[in-house]
Amino acid sequence: MDKAYSDSLQSILDDECTLYGELIAIDGVELKALVSTSPTTKNLQIAGYYKSKTLDVIIPSGKVTPEINNIVLYKQDNFYVKMIEELIYDHGYRFTMELVR
């Protein structure tokens, strides 16, 4: 895909996270991220795939690359990264995190 298009998506995601994002920390690196729970994640939690509170997170690429089992600090709670998806134009990451019990 065109580099300019990818860069524009990166810029838009950065702006969205800055305006609407919530503060998280991955491996000690603080950044703003879009945090929510998708219907798919809710259904997986109901089905028993996840045992604890589970959230979906979208972050722009660049500052940190999430890895499975990274510890994420969000609202004074520790979460494990359980699933990672690189966004289609490499402008960010979507990952699912589960509360550490």
Characteristics of this structure?
about 100 residues, six-stranded antiparallel barrel, Thrombin, subunit H
Q: Helices and strands in order, then pairings?
A:
Blueprint: H1 3-20, E1 22-26, E2 29-36, H2 39-46, E3 54-60, E4 71-74, E5 77-86, E6 92-99
Antiparallel strand pairs: 1-2, 1-4, 2-3, 3-6, 4-5, 5-6
Describe the structure.
The chain is of the alpha+beta class. It has a single domain (3-99), classed as Thrombin, subunit H. It is 26% helix and 42% strand. It has two helices and six strands, in the order H-E-E-H-E-E-E-E. The protein has helices at 3-20, 39-46; strands at 22-26, 29-36, 54-60, 71-74, 77-86, 92-99. The chain has a six-stranded antiparallel barrel with strand order 1-2-3-6-5-4. The longest helix is centred in the first third of the chain and has 18 residues, at 3-20. The radius of gyration is 14 Å and the shape is globular. The termini are far apart. The model has no long low-confidence stretch (mean pLDDT 93).
Mean pLDDT: 93
Shape: globular
Number of domains: 1
- Give the CATH class: Mainly Beta
Q: Tally the helices.
A: 2
Kindly provide the radius of gyration, computed on alpha-carbon positions and rounded to a whole number of angstroms.
14 Å
State the helicity in percent bands. 25-40%
- How much of the residues is beta strand, in percent? 35-45%
Briefly note the structural class of the backbone.
alpha+beta
How do the SSEs run, as a string of H and E? Answer: HEEHEEEE
Low-pLDDT segments, ≥5 res: none
Biggest sheet character: 6 strands, antiparallel, barrel
CATH topology: Thrombin, subunit H
What is the CA-CA span between the terminal residues? 42 Å
Strand order in the largest sheet: 1-2-3-6-5-4
How many β-strand runs? 6
CATH architecture: Beta Barrel
